[in-house]
Amino acid sequence: MGKTLAEKVWDAHVVRAVDGEPDLLYIDLHLVHEVTSPQAFEGLRMNGRRVRRPDLTLATEDHNTPTLNILAPIADPVSRTQVETLRRNAAEFGIRIHSLGDRDQGVVHIIGPQLGVTQPGMTIVCGDSHTSTHGAFGALAFGIGTSEVEHVLATQTLPQKKPRMMAVNINGDLPPGVTAKDVVLALIAKVGTGGGQGYIVEYRGSTIEQLSMEGRMTICNMSIEWGAKAGMIAPDETTLAYLKGRPHAPEGGDWEAAVEYWRTLRSDDDAHFDAQVDIDATRLTPFVTWGTNPGHGVPLGGWYLLPRTSIPRSSGPPPAGPSNTWTWPRAPRCGRSRWTRCSSAPAPTAGSRT
Fold this sequence. Notes:
By secondary structure, this protein is α/β, with parallel strands linked by helices.
């Protein structure tokens, strides 16, 4: 039987496999920021350990950093302490860091792709749940906790139980005005915020193939929003065009060798997926979120709940049948809220595009 894209990358990084135990995976790239790393570095210090592969570790300041006056002292004392601690730890343990004022400093999920450090077939971890962003390049990328950050710093490996495999097949041309964010919100509305739990998801189909790398990163970034361990997209010509010429991308003969390998990173025709979800992209509309989690999303023209005081008296409950391509229940008679229709210009309290 063939292998999925995720299985190919996973199996290529298994250092140790024992029945009844998690696999021990080698980690190709460890991204570090100021929030989830201080205790990990302190753990190394207390046990007299060094960072095993500082050359495979990259730090940046991005979570508690200002967007204006970035060279001035950070006003918030907690944020300032976290950033200063990361700088000291990077200097002590010999880790490359992109600090405020560095031209390559930025959001931890974005600097990897922009610098060409993120590449197909890699295993990538970071102490942040949205590390799945890097899966857009055909990398197996996922967030880890602080104790796991310490483990990777010390050993460059991580014990992990192999998840199940899911394929999300999205086909058809996107209608005008529909973006990658709408695609993933429609997916979450369909399967729920827990629909991906226990799975590595591969996004496939003609819709995905037509997206830019930024669109693909958007979809993989939100894999965690519906519970998936990671999200991946097979590398193709769009991926190669994005990476070629990046500061840390291979060059010359190394580039040709890398491309030859990257082209093998596709699910085999006879690969087995434990679950599949199909979406017809031609039926999608722009989405809005109206509640407190990504599962509270509706297409324009759909129905959502608002407080009674903000509902026009003429508004009624949703129909019993489908609204656009989605079916919604009748309005609950709780006395505190009612259903209203989502228009192209919803009231501010109705939720907004995120």
